Amino acid sequence: MVDLASQNLSLDASGRSRRARRKPLPRWIISTGTIVALLVAWEIFGRDINPVFGSYPSAIAVAGWELVASGELVRALAESIQPFVLGYAMSVVVGVPLGLVLGRFRTVEAALGLLVTGGYAMPLVALVPLLVLWLGLGFWVKVAVIFLMCVFPIAINTWLGVKVVPKPLIEVGRAFVAPDLVILRRIVLPATLPYIMAGLKLSVGRGVVAMVIAEFFTAISGLGGIIINAANAFDTARMFVPIVVLMVLATLLNALVGTIERRVAPWQAEMAGNHD
Amino acid sequence: MGEVSLVDVTKRFTSGVGAAAHTVFALKRVSFTIRDGEIAVLIGPSGCGKTTALRVAMGLEQASHGHVMVDGREVHGCGYDRGMVFQHAELLPWLTALQNVQFGLEMKGMRGAELHDTAMRYLDLVGLKDSWNRRPYQLSGGMRQRVGIARALAIDPKVLLMDEPFGALDAQTRESLQIELLDIQARTGKTILFVTHDLDEAVLLADRVVVMRDGELQEIVDVALPRPRGDIGRLRSSPAFGEIRYRIWKALHQAPDVVH
Q: Where in this chain does the record put each ABC transmembrane type-1 domain (chain A) (predicted)?
């Protein structure tokens, strides 16, 4: 009987890999194709526009090279990334446990649920002047802006994830007399991981936006500083350089979170049948 | 020892809110005793309260009135004296088969080599020793339920509570698991309370069949078939099997309000 069952499994596995090999176009080719097509179109039509009102890829590349050669871009990137990493890390450390207890304990949900939902919709830009009064113009106000922008989506996603953990899985914990905190750590947390990871990905984008906002409204510095200085000088091509860098950065960070997800929750991708 | 009693158990559920709220009685003053070492099967149409009775016995559901006794002692909530096998196995998808079996043991406080060896022994008992490193999605439905059984047995409970554990399996897998369960019960001598809506399964497994209807106990039917049950194919087609099956069928279809 065991034999039969294991034969079944190996059949399954070979069937799946054959299907994978028959796949026509790898994803990265399609993605690259879209980007190349967009760049070519931009290059062709962008050249006709007054350089104050718009720019085009080759001009941006030249401006980018100048910024790299002068060392400005690397310095600005380093300046921007430090508060980002700290603010983002703090939002994970606070947001995930907050979401877990929100979803699991009715009292906490009743006490803090509205605040978290409201906090997510908080017009952060409007609060920046106040934050500046509290924290000054330097490093910490940037950390605070990034933290406030990231912590709510992480907490809310985690909270929602806890809400949809199948009840029988929690009953497994109860049936084996597991204490509440053990159920939270050993059952609810792993079951919620896909939602947590989605929250982390969502927050990468928001965190990058928060970083630029912070650099606009506090001490002008970092990548946001280059944007605003170039814009004030009507140097549009130069202004686009940090924007492109930020988009690439956010995409890479997203991919990084995806890699971490496959590390900590390999069963998730395998269950869904995503092997690439 | 492993004797379980439901004593005068009533279970009320309230659904809806405010003016729309209404109370449903899932169990109405149900009492029965499962003797040490026997297999008792709870049978009835869906909504008859059989699963609720099992969940009350397990402690996952609190009785509105009445209580549950294990070996003469009243119990509250879940405990290691009872092991639960869930309807759809409910393995933790991020753990391997071995880790799933270890889960209950860890909760019970077992650690180290003893933990590994005990879990392995129970995986072996259900014939899955070689699949110890597979995750639930890599196992067939039948294999998953075997792991579920191993997980419940591993904590060495006095009573095994099984909630339609083979209901979602195909006929052949179900039959092989039924045979295996009989075999495991013969070897371990565990008391088993088994919920099903399948008449054949009830007769095949049970020493006694508890027939339920509308939250009430309808009848308890003794299954006077020899143990071990031997050749199941032959047993199924024997007149004794058919006779008992018919008696349970009649108990299920007896409409108390219709008089001929």
A: 77-257
